[in-house]
Amino acid sequence: MDKQIRSRVSLLNPVHFLALGFGSGLAAKMPGTFGTLAALPLVVLLSLYSSFNIYLIVTILSSVVGIWICGKAADDMGVHDDSSIVWDELAGMLITMLAVPLSWQTLLAGFLLFRFFDIIKPWPISYLDKHVHGGFGIMIDDVLAGLFALVCLHLCLVFGWL
Predict the structure, then answer these.
(1) Where are the domains of the chain?
(2) pTM of the model
(3) Which of 40, 70, 91, 145 has the fewest CB atoms within 10 Å around its CB?
(4) Closest by alpha carbon to 32, among 95, 117, 104?
(5) How far apart are CA 26 and CA 23, in angstroms?
């Protein structure tokens, strides 16, 4: 993030704090990866200490509210989908781990699968990434990357690869 854009956001602003993944999006390199890493403690806490229904509600809320959070932060920055906005990675990682039994193996596989789909952006993720704008546009590619990773992760579990 360049200094001019950085001057338009503040971690003291709750919307910016969330959009920037609790500050993880300010990493000089690979902010999306650091944003995904910032999601892991939440994934672990929800997986270990809540029911499936609570995990699902938090995941849906993070995705829906993320549309506004990411859109507002992007508007404040004056840049569409600045790489420092990583709330979408947090929501995508929550989606990836939905109904997945927690272990270091599933957490690592989920992380790698989500990052793969988020970076490679196969169709239709690539299409939506280029053609849908605003907060919904920021969120939708990561929601789909999370869904792709979720399906792959569950297939790995069904076939006993994890």
Answers:
(1) 3-19+29-158
(2) 0.95
(3) 40
(4) 117
(5) 6
Residue 160 tokens read as 């006993």
Burial 54-88 (b: 16+ CB within 10 A, else e): ebeebbeebbeebbebbbbbbebbebebbebbbbb
Amino acid at 45: L
Instruction: Quote the tokens at residue 96.
Output: 């990836």
**Which ranges constitute the DSSP H helices of 50-102?**
52-77, 87-96
Q: What is the mean pLDDT of each run of 10 residues along the chain (162 residues)?
A: 74 95 94 97 96 98 98 93 95 98 97 98 95 96 98 97 92
Q: Which residue has the tokens 């602003």?
A: 13
Q: How long is the chain?
A: 162
Tokens 């690979």, residue? Answer: 30
Report the chain's terminal Cα–Cα distance, integer Å: 37
Whether omega for the bond prior to residue 31 falls within 30 degrees of 0, making it cis, is no
Question: What H or E segment, with its residue span, contains residue 135?
Answer: helix 134-158
Kindly state the helix (H) or strand (E) to which residue 131 belongs, with its residue range. helix 125-131
